[in-house]
Amino acid sequence: QKEVEQNSGPLSVPEGAIASLNCTYSDRVSQSFFWYRQYSGKSPELIMSIYSNGDKEDGRFTAQLNKASQYVSLLIRDSQPSDSATYLCAVRREYSSASKIIFGSGTRLSIRP
Amino acid sequence: NAGVTQTPKFQVLKTGQSMTLQCAQDMNHNSMYWYRQDPGMGLRLIYYSASEGTTDKGEVPNGYNVSRLNKREFSLRLESAAPSQTSVYFCASSYRGNTEAFFGQGTRLTVV
After folding, report:
1. What is the dihedral angle through the alpha carbons of A80, A84, A86, A87, rounded to the nearest 10 degrees?
2. For A1-113, where are the E strands, in sequence order?
3. Which letter, b or e, does each residue of A58-74 get, where b requires 16 or more Cβ atoms within 10 Å of its Cβ?
């Protein structure tokens, strides 16, 4: 079982609708959770981080975390063509001597006009 | 403010050749990471480092070595390149604690 799992997609959503992206993780002691966006040929860029259970909103983006279910999601409201990209879920775990950040395989999102 | 800088951006190697990918960050971050990205595979962690002189294996360390030369620099070495190591390599860095990683622009490596 991969440590971080995502549906690879592609997920196709009409412009103006809500896009819902999901992620599950296997390590219960994971402490920080991130969503990155990656355009083709570019580096990943952070769009949301979340550390405690519940919802966190930033503009059109809402991240949701449920540690009991080991589940993280990202909602994108009023989807725009510029939101078409691959979205990567990442999980960070701190150890006594180091920390590691593990990524899922990514979900390709396509916003159709 | 350059952030995370990787060199080179592109490289073609022949099977069996060796090379070192360089990474440097100017954000005073403690932790540094090397990932590889293959189509449909997301980012897979090769090695990571919490501080100068310390390194740990990630998900796919075989065929690679790393060196944390100082706080700024973290290099990835391929001793004998194989076609299976054809990939895009990303270096990243972060502070300690619950903080995100910042990425370099990537190195596209082809092994023929």
Report:
1. 10
2. 4-6, 11-14, 19-25, 32-38, 45-50, 54-58, 61-66, 71-76, 85-94, 99-103, 107-112
3. eeebbbbbeeeebebbb
Q: How distant is the Cα of B104 from the closest Cα of chain A, in angstroms?
A: 7
Q: What is the pLDDT of residues B38-90, one digit of tens each?
A: 987 889 999 999 999 899 999 999 999 999 989 999 999 999 999 999 999 99
Phi/psi region, residue A35 (left: phi>0; alpha: psi -120 to 50; beta: rest), is beta
Tokens of A93: 């775990």
Cβ contact, residue pair B100, A88, below 8 Å: no
Q: Looking at the complex, does the CB of residue A7 fall below 8 Å from at least one CB of chain B?
A: no
Contacts of B58 in chain A (CB under 8 A): 100
Q: What is the mean pLDDT of residues A42-61?
A: 96
Say which amino acid occupies B56.
D
Residue A90 to residue B40, Cβ atoms within 8 A: no
For residues A32 and A53, the answer to whether their CB atoms sit within 8 Å is: no
CA distance B56 to chain A (A): 8
